[in-house]
C-alpha cells in the first residue's frame, strides 16, 4: 500500500504550507524518491515536532514565511540540504548553513523572466498611468470629465537597475527594446554586462530617471534606498521595487511621494506585508501589487520541477540543479 | 505699439496661408511657432474672413481627429494638402481627397513608440493582472491573499500583430525582447520582415495566443476582429486594441468575455467613445483605457516637429515627410 511504502522514503520537512502548494497544487511536488513531513499538519508545537523527528530529516523545503535559523539547524543535525521555493534567500541563515556544511538550493532563474516582466509592466504603468486611467474609466469619469491627463514616455528614459543579477539582467534586456538607457549598481561590476556601472546607488540615482530594485535583501541592502537616494533620483524620478520591501526606507519613500519629491512608484513588495502604508491608497502616481511578481502557473510548474529535481538529485547523490554558491 | 503690430500683421499677411481646422474643444500649443512662417487662419476665430481667404487656402492643418468632410473640402477649391496631427486618418474623407488630388499627411512615426509601449503595457497588465492587483490592494483585500487568481506568463506567448505598420513594428520589437514569438497579418506581406505572415486574420488568430490590433480603420478593416477571429483565438486568447474601436466587433467581444470564451482584453479604443460597455467594468481580465495610447508629454513635442516638417516640405515643393498612401 502506498502508505507503507512511503514510510521508508527519506523525509523532507516543511514548516509552513508553501503558497505554491495552494496556488499550483501539491501533486506537482510528488516524487517516488522522497516524502514531505509537514510540520504544519501536526498538532505539536514546532520545537517538539523537530525533537520528535530530528534524526530522520535530511532536507528542508523552505518558503518565504518560514525562516531557517541557526537554532533550527541545530535541532536538525541530519539536515544536509535546504531547498527554497523562493528566489530570495533572506529567510535563510546562510552563514549558519555554510558553517554546518548544509547546501542551499534556491529557485534560481525559474522566476526571473516573470519577475522582470512584472517590473517592466509596473514601470510602464506608473509612467503611462495605465491603472489610474482604468480606474477613471470604471468610475464613469471618461464620460463626465473627458480625457485623462498625459503620461510620460518610457522610451528614452535613463533607467538604473539596482542589482544586476539574473532578474536585473532580464529587466535590462527588456527595457533596452523600449529605447531606455540602462546603467546599474551591484556589489561588483559584472564583466558580462556592457552597461555603465555605478559603484554607489546614490550616484546611480542621480543619473537616472527611474530606478528598478532587483537586488537581494541583505544586511548591506536594508534601507539602501533612503531619503538621500530618493532626493537624488529627483522630482521626475520613478521607483519600481520587485525585490524586497525593506530595501527601501518605506517611511521616507512615502514622505517623498506625499511631498512630490519623486514622481511615482510601482511596488510589488512592502516592509510589512500585507500592510501597505495608507497614504499610498489615495495616490494616483503609485501602482500597488500584492507581492505576486512570481505568480504565474507556468513559473510555478517550472519551480515544482526544479524543487523535485533538486531533492531527487540530493537523495540519489547526484549534483544539485541549482546549488546556491556565494559570489 | 499699434504701428509695430500693424507691421507684424502685414508681414503675417505676406506669408503663405495655412488654415487651422479644429473642433471648438480642440486646441494646439504651437500657434506662435507656426506664425513665424505662416499666416494662420482659424475660421472659428475669424468666421468673417472665410470668404476672403477661400481661394487662397492651399493647406489645412487639421488639429487632432477634427472631421474633414467632403463639404469642408468642397469649400476650398485650391486645397492641395491636409496636414494631420493624428496617427489615424479615418476622420478625413480620403475618397474625396483622392478625387481632388489632395495630399494627406499624418503623425508619421511621432506617436509610434508611445503607442507601442502602451500596447505592451496593456498586454502585461491584462496577462499579469496589474490593474486588477492594484484594485485588490486598494480595496484592502490583500490580507486574504491566496484567493487572488494567478496571472499568466508573457514569455513564450505567440503574438499576432494585426497591421505591421510603424506602430505594429515597434510592438513586435518590444515583445521579442520578452521572449514572445511574433507573426503578423497586413494588407500585403512585407518582404524585409523576418516574422511569419498570415494572409488571413483568422489563420493568424488560430496560431496566436495574443492579438495586438494596430492597423488603420478603413472599409476593409471594419470589424476585422469578428466572431470567427475570436473563436479562432480561443479561450485563453487575449486581444489588445490600440487602433480604432471599430476594428473589433465590440458586441461580440463583450459576449465572448462574458461567456469566458476568450481569456482577456486590453482596450484603448471603443466603438462609441467615451462609452464603454458596462459589462466590462466588473471584469478583472480586461484593462480599460480612455483612448490615450499616444498621449504623453513627449508626444506633443514630437507631433509639432512632424506638422512643421510637412508644412515646410509642402511649401518648398519637397517630398512630404509622412504622406498617407491614399490608393
UniProtKB/TrEMBL annotation, chain A:
Keyword Repressor: no
Gene Ontology MF annotations: glyoxylate reductase (NADPH) activity; hydroxypyruvate reductase [NAD(P)H] activity; NAD binding
Cellular component terms per the entry's GO annotation: cytosol
Family in the record: Belongs to the D-isomer specific 2-hydroxyacid dehydrogenase family.
UniProt protein name: glyoxylate reductase (NADP(+))
UniProt EC number: 1.1.1.79
One GO BP annotation of this record: photorespiration
Domain of life assignment: Eukaryota
Residues of the D-isomer specific 2-hydroxyacid dehydrogenase NAD-binding domain: 120-293
Keyword Oxidoreductase set for record: yes
Keywords: NAD, NADP, Oxidoreductase
Organism, scientific name: Cephalotus follicularis
Source organism phylogeny: Eukaryota, Viridiplantae, Streptophyta, Embryophyta, Tracheophyta
Domain D-isomer specific 2-hydroxyacid dehydrogenase catalytic: 51-321
Pfam families, sorted: 2-Hacid_dh, 2-Hacid_dh_C
TrEMBL record, chain B:
Top-rank taxon: Eukaryota
Protein name (database record): glyoxylate reductase (NADP(+))
PANTHER family linked: 2-HYDROXYACID DEHYDROGENASE-RELATED (PTHR10996), GLYOXYLATE_HYDROXYPYRUVATE REDUCTASE HPR3 (PTHR10996:SF268)
InterPro entries listed in its UniProt record: D-isomer_2-hydroxyacid_DH, D-isomer_2_OHA_DH_cat_dom, D-isomer_DH_NAD-bd, NAD(P)-bd_dom_sf
Family, similarity comment: Belongs to the D-isomer specific 2-hydroxyacid dehydrogenase family.
Annotated Pfam families: 2-Hacid_dh (PF00389), 2-Hacid_dh_C (PF02826)
Documented EC number(s): 1.1.1.79
Organism, as annotated: Cephalotus follicularis (Albany pitcher plant)
MF term (GO), any: NAD binding
All copies of domain D-isomer specific 2-hydroxyacid dehydrogenase NAD-binding, residue ranges: 120-293
Record's keyword annotation contains NAD: yes
GO cellular component: cytosol
Lineage: Eukaryota, Viridiplantae, Streptophyta, Embryophyta, Tracheophyta
